[in-house]
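Inverse folding, one chain.
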């Protein structure tokens, strides 16, 4: 009996101690990482605004019409090289504006939309640019906060033109 009551009295205390330790050891994000993420998000937002102003509507609308028409929601797509490759992430010439239906079809490679988007960009920018992007995507790039801020300014200036 005495052992059970002892455990019962200690259990709430152990929980309090462990909660204090958990709160103490919760890792906070470093300030530099937070500032980098904010700069990255600002540059990405400026890029999206610039592409929206440049393209204005779905760039594969004629192909969307065949498969049910375009949706009203427009999304920017990294047409040639995936967004996971940071070396080509901010290259505006590889971006294309698609409606959400076309973007989904391109992402899941249905109805050949990935090839259609690839061809649209190749026709607009040229084969040399496509080869250049594919080679550049093999490089590893870590953007600095200063580079991200400079790109944000460039994209905002291009958006206004």
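Residues assigned per position:
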């Amino acid at each position: 009996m005495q052992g059970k009551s002892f455990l019962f009295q200690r259990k709430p205390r152990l929980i309090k101690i462990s909660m204090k330790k958990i709160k103490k050891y919760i890792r906070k994000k470093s300030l530099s990482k937070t500032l980098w993420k904010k700069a990255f998000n600002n540059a990405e937002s400026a890029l999206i605004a610039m592409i929206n102003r440049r393209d204005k509507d779905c760039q594969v609308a004629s192909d969307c019409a065949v498969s049910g028409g375009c949706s009203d929601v427009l999304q920017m797509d990294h047409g040639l090289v995936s967004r996971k490759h940071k070396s080509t992430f901010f290259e505006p010439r590889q971006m294309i504006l698609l409606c959400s239906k076309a973007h989904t079809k391109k992402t899941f490679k249905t109805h050949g939309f990935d090839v259609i988007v690839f061809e649209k960009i190749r026709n607009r920018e040229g084969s040399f640019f496509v080869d250049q992007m594919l080679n550049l995507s093999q490089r590893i790039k870590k953007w600095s906060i200063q580079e991200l801020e400079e790109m944000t300014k460039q994209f905002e200036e291009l958006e206004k033109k």
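The chain is about 65% helix and 5% strand. The helical segments are 2-25, 31-55, 61-66, 100-107, 113-125, 127-136, 145-160.
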